[in-house]
């Protein structure tokens, strides 16, 4: 799975902290959207620029820390 994030976003850090706390860091590809290439890839994949954005293996995506955390907690519970 790919997590698009901004280094200054508290919602992104909430998701990242949860992932790290569960020991799942190696299951994710992190893309920094403060860099032009990351922002362009997010736009291409999801059609929008909101972060955090999680792209799952089946190419669907979730936006926002609450939706992402609910999905991950269900997946890894």
From TrEMBL:
This is GST N-terminal domain-containing protein. SUPFAM superfamilies: Thioredoxin-like (SSF52833). Residues 1-77 form the GST N-terminal domain. It comes from Granulimonas faecalis.
């Amino acid at each position: 799975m790919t997590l698009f994030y901004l280094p200054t976003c508290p919602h992104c850090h909430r998701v990242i902290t949860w992932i790290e706390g569960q020991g799942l860091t190696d299951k994710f590809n992190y893309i920094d959207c403060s860099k032009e290439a990351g922002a362009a890839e997010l736009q291409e994949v999801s059609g929008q620029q909101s972060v955090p954005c999680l792209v799952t293996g089946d190419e669907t995506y979730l936006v926002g820390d609450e939706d992402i955390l609910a999905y991950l907690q269900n997946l890894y519970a």
